[in-house]
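User: Once you have settled down, look closely at the record that follows, taking as long as you need, and be ready to discuss the fold:
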Amino acid sequence: MEHPKPTFELGFSYRALKMKASVIRELLKLTHRKEIISLAGGLPSPAVFPQKQVAEIAAEVSLTHGEVALQYGSTEGYTPLRDAVAERMRSKGIDVTGKDVVITHGSQQGLDLLSKVFLDPHDTIIAEAPSYVGALSSFHAFEGKVLSFPLEPDGLDVEAVDKYMRCLEESDEKKPKFIYTVPTFNNPAGITMSEAKRKRLLEIANEFNLIIIEDNPYGELRYSGDDIPPIKSWDTEGRVVYLGTFSKIFAPGFRLAWLSAEPRILKKIVIAKQSADLCSNTFGQEITSRFIEKGMLEPHIEKIRNLYSKNCVAMLESLDLHFPKEAHWTKPDGGMFIWVTLPENINAQEMFPKALARNVAYVVGHCFFPDDAGHNTLRLNFSHATEDKIRSGIKTLGDVIKAEIAEKGPVQ
């Protein structure tokens, strides 16, 4: 039944009127058919969900500690989980305690809260291009202006950032509020920032009094190469805000992540969180805490690495076999994504329906740019589909791309 249009004014705020739906979420609605091979969403594989262990711990928590686990908790989060997070951060060279950690509803809430406490209308944010679309959406919702700098094979072009900041000092323009980066296995590009660039970026932040938001959801999903310490491990001034998550290494449905920052920032984050949700999922926090306490997390992460590593190899091999020579792609050492660049006259958005008609889906690249650039790019995910479907999907997508290149002709 079709509902009549309302005859009254809804009175949305000007901020709500400027909000845009997530391009990725809208695309994913088209990929729910069983016959679709989705290389689109950044979904963990359900094949590695620890269903039995979670069921056993959930029963244990409910029966032995239900009066606490089923109740409201503190805004900052469940203390044993905050302590466990801090211990894991210390193992990466970050000097923190549980008091320096706030548990959030996914890293996305952390980005939303940071936007809320830092951004005024027209404030500038420095970010990578391409950059995580969820962060761009959050900055846009709070009327921030994203100034993007290109990703190089070893990460953000930090010297371009330095040059910009020096030019800015000679003008009357406002200084950027913060630098946002996903330095390890960047979403969407899969690129990792080198250690030298991480230290250099921190030097720039120290010199120009900037905050760095270091978003690290994929750092524990390394399949080759050596680990690189987080930027925050070298931070001696408290200017790096660190975001981590359990969504990629445990259970995304729990929506549990964390934010670590110096006390003045955390105080504002807690106040902002109180008006957003009062507290995060107490039951899920206790299950997660006990999962770690029982020594289950590390072997579980290794299980994830083993599966995703095989999937990544399968996708890279298939790209070599089936994609045209005109296409180029990243070769990540970890994470969940591969970034593909096509000839400049190919529009990935226009090509998407043709791929979907052949039962393959990807994410168009332009949504990862604040200026709507990157129309000839796309993101591929290798964590969710099975190895067989990855190989089949890449073969089909390669045929679609070859046909598109033949139709469009050479770049003029």
